[in-house]
Amino acid sequence: MKVLVPIKRVIDYNVKVRVKADNSNVDLANVKMAINPFCEIAVEEAVRLKEAGIATEVIAVSIGNKSCQEQLRTALALGADRAIQIETDESLDSINIAKLLQKIVEEEQPQLVILGKQSIDSDNNQTGQMLAALTGMAQGTFASAVSIDGDKVNVTREVDSGLQTLALTLPAIVTTDLRLNEPRYASLPNIMKAKRKPLVVKAAADFGIDLTPRTNLIKVTPPAERKAGIIVESIDELVEKLKNEAKVIS
Amino acid sequence: MSILVFAEHDNSELKADTLKTVAAAQAIGGDIHLLVAGHNCQAVAEAASKVNGVSKVLVADNAAYEHQLAENVSLLVTELAADYNHIMATALTTGKNFMPRVAALLDVTQISDIIAVESSDTFVRPIYAGNAIATVQSLDSKKVITVRSTGFDAVATDGNAEIIAVDKVTDAGISSYVSEQLSVSERPELGAASVIISGGRGMQNGENFKLLDGIADKLGAAIGASRAAVDAGFVPNDMQVGQTGKIVAPDLYIAVGISGAIQHLAGMKDSKVIVAINKDAEAPIFQVADYGLVADLFNALPELESKL
Ligand SMILES: Cc1cc2nc3c(=O)[nH]c(=O)nc-3n(C[C@H](O)[C@H](O)[C@H](O)COP(=O)(O)OP(=O)(O)OC[C@H]3O[C@@H](n4cnc5c(N)ncnc54)[C@H](O)[C@@H]3O)c2cc1C
Ligand SMILES: Nc1ncnc2c1ncn2[C@@H]1O[C@H](COP(=O)(O)O)[C@@H](O)[C@H]1O
To answer: Which of A156, B19, B117, B276 could make an S-S bridge to B27, C-beta 3.0–4.6 Å?
Structure first.
């Protein structure tokens, strides 16, 4: 079966982003970018399915400007077979991302689509669920275990109260949580090989979808800064402060 | 204007977070209805009818909604949505799971995780793990919104709403519940606790988390963890606090053996008072702590327990 993995180029998770002085957005100039960590886990899961002889082909797709080809090459180096870039210079709302992905699902007919649960930039946590609704597929979100079982996939999900396992009819959508797997590092030979794997570019505008923005970003401000407090010298001092100064314990 | 709020519950209890989501709905303003979708959930419906500011409680009580499968609940909510301008749910795992499906079926984009309401179409939400705060206007005709509970104060529960049965049954038939592994704890839930004590990788193993128990008992605290502690298998996933775990804002948060990575801070830096216990004086957690103690936790925790 084919597995489709949508991936997003985002700020590296170690970077603490800053807000632009004019409050129009965050400042991404000269910031280190990377594949969204949850998407990396998605690629790893798809590649493992291929190594297990369950998946036949792993296709990575990314929607963005030319620079997201870098992350598609990373996915190819991690073991994806081919890549699709849907080119746009706009930063699209999730519903429009999901509609473009729906077109790719219609073209490619994958049995499984694995997405990250959340982009660490927009923190939206919605694209996978939207794609599932648009394609009429079942969804297993926040997955910490995935196993294919005939024409079904069993997904164990990280939920507020613990873990929940669902059985989904294929084709289905899975979104990854952090504990699903630990992604491998791409080896140098695989990085070299990735350069020769197919990467096709399609223009977002050619899909015949109305991509009009659904949101208007009015402003972006820095969060309220917490000022560092004091260092206490002993447990006695700590308990005294919590009782008499902060008054949070009695 | 009318607003539909999805009630968060486990078929027996209405979760307190719903009271905060209703507060967010009140900030938008309008006639507020609560939807209780579940199975054998009459007790929840009763509790929901007491939530202040709610005029009607819609109860969809059917086996198809027992586990609140996203495929089924989203169809129900989408049908009901015809009568509402705003559809809201708490940004917990149930709401995060099904609400974007509702948004897509209505052909709108979701505004996730709002922490404040500016107007009926403009909302404030953290992005980049809370390192930036965005003010976003929704241009869609219907607004599908998830609410971060830490941004709102719970409404009271001395109301008296009318309870109305909804007999629509929408079973998509493509997903089914297999099993669950619930964490059972006598302690308050992370989202509801006024005191939280969390352990990180510095705890070294799961056994050592017992060092937090006595303190939690004395303070009536919930116990949380960093992702590193969860990943290392010290404690279960539902204890994770952070950008991609639970978001909390208790009166007192005590971080023990936690370095203070941005992803962890994203989940707790709105706590009223933060205490950090770490043996490394340079640990970034001290930059957000009101009270820092540079100490070995294996000495500090027993002493703290004895002095409370
Ligand atoms: C996409 C993504 C999402 C993430 N989401 C989350 C999230 O939601 N929540 C989260 O917490 N993390 C998250 N992380 C992980 C995060 O980046 C950090 O790796 C993690 O928070 C570190 O946990 P820690 O502080 O327990 O461990 P460490 O960073 O290893 O820190 C351990 C601390 O313990 C101290 N220590 C050790 N021994 C002792 C002792 N005996 N006494 C006192 N102090 C001691 C050390 O000085 C150190 O400061 C995420 C990462 C990624 C990539
Ligand atoms: N521009 C994009 N291109 C490809 N996949 C995307 C894009 N944006 C989001 N996704 C996918 O959707 C997941 C969830 O993103 P979000 O809903 O934005 O939090 C990501 O982890 C990706 O798998």
So the answer is: B117
